[in-house]
Amino acid sequence: MPFTRDTVNGFRYQVAVNDHGRNVLVEVLKWRYRGGNLSVKEYFRTLGRPKKKFKDMFNAEQHQILDRETPYLLNVDATFRGYDLSLLFIILRNFCGLEGSDSDAWKKPASGKKLEYLINRLKKERNDIAHTKEVKQMSDAKVIKKLKWLKRLLSRIIRTAGTISKKKPHIPRALIAGIKQEFRGLLTKVREPLDPDDLSLLPQLQKELMIFRNIIKEKVKEDSREELCELYPYLWDVTLAKWLYPDLTVRPSLNFTNLIIKEDTSRSMTINAQPRTISHEDILQVRRRDNDLPEVLIISGEGGMGKTTLLKFLTETWVENPKQITGLENVSHLIYFQLRGSSISSFKDLLKNLIPNTFQESGVKLEYFEDFFLNFNVVFLLDGYDEANEESKKLITDLLRFQQSNMRFVITTRPGCLNDLIHIAEQRKKVMNIEIKGIRRADRLYFVEKTLSEIEHDPVRRNALRDNIIANLETLYMDMDELDVPLTITLVIIREFKDPSQRSTDIYEDLTVLMMGKITERLAVQGIADAENKVKDYFSTLRKVSLRGLKRKEHDLWPETVTELKAKAVEDDSDDYHTCEVESSFHQLVKRNVELVTKEKLKDETVPQLIDFAQNAFASIKKIMNPETTSEGIQQFASGLPKLIDAFK
User: Fold this and answer.
1) Where is the NACHT domain (predicted)?
2) What's the CATH code of the domain at 368?
3) Which runs of E-coded beta strand occur in 258-406?
4) pLDDT at residue 488, rounded to an integer
5) β-pairing, 431-440 with 296-300?
6) Which of 168, 122, 99 is nearest to 26 (CA)?
7) At what angle are helices 114-130 and 85-95 packed, to 10 degrees?
């Protein structure tokens, strides 16, 4: 590094912050320390607090320093002067009668507790310096301005500490006079060349700064992992059918069953490549056809296939027992985030929102905080690209710009948005797509038993429910050979669990009735007249319109049909509520209704208009499925029903 004038100025400022800042905190600590002549460790022991609290308070290097101290200090001043600014700061915050670490007094100057804020401001300045790999370059004008600011800060710390410690006025005045004298000398030297003695200290200072930077980084790494582990239990529960019974939730590990996951070979360069079957246990280690690990692993599948459950299962496993998934134990940070309804558009904002306590405690600027994570082994689980809004897509773009090989991404989406996502990801990363196909029929019993164990605690009734559900599933027609759709089984479980007395011999008809009942309840609560008949008419229309499209062979919807549907469907402006699983099950109901009329089994690929119709029809009802929908929204839906029904009679 060339020793320019700007380098010299930067070096002098670093010396001022480290040396003079430490000296000021030593004086404050001598005035405020509650332990008297007891060492910090011994004083903590007398407080009767848990040992883990003391362990978490300091890093390994600081523990080594404190462990060397005798229980009774012979020279408090000499002991404290052997501590660096970071260690002094922690002791001041925890053993000197100041506000707790979570108090706003450390963050806001207007809090009324000036000393806490002033000390924290000095610590942040120290941290900013510690995060630079080289000495900051400063012009003469800039270093003079910074030194004057630092002199005022240190003087205010001494003055404020002297006042609240009830020291005689001449004591802080003398210390402040000494600070001013020292800084006059520093300001005088700004335009002088660096003398040989100062020059010899430069390598040592740089080494110390790098050590301190690594200490902060390891502390952030440890604290952020702990904060994520505390957060995820509040996020990982799976709601079995949010749109019907939002209170029915289970832990993902108790609802997760082995999924059939296939490699997508449609983009493979290998001729006639056979798709590989991938175990969920190896999902983080699956390799592309060129034998490279994908930097972006896309998991695609229709609604209700278990994409969200899989990501939540990975999240729970990372917290509880990462060795279950190959490679997961080597992931320092697993960051799970739902893209639906997000207002977060950058990695910085994501970190600040997911781990706010770690960020605030670190005392570093946000760009430095982000830089730490670029060096950690991070896997991002981003759920629901098909539901991403503009802000969520900006977040994905921001994340994909990083070129670090230690950062990998797992993103889920429905097939309709797959090509768009691949196009975005392939511009910067190595991408691989895998598809969730369902679960084996052989795992059906296991899935049912695990789900029931969470929602029904009476073993006798649970066994009876299990037997009835398995018997009903045997009569259920499935599109996929030998594979079950998790959502379909879940709906059958809920149907049996909630009201087995109302079931008929047709499961799809029962599910239709279940959905109609929920919609009717919402309309009735809002005071809509004749809600039951309106809903019956609406669902009857679903069969008629689906059948009409089938008879006209609208394999691609006719323009007038599209226009008709868009014009008559109730507008949905609920941006923050969209449940793909509802839409998927809704399509299954429409498809089954047409089967009842035609007496034929239908394949999705032969009647794609049913999918489009189900989506349009679903848009008309999903708003009232949302418990937060206002009375005005319900009235809008109710008023639109007769128009929609009349249009297709």
Assistant:
1) 295-416
2) 3.40.50.300
3) 260-263, 277-278, 296-300, 333-338, 378-383
4) 79
5) parallel
6) 122
7) 150
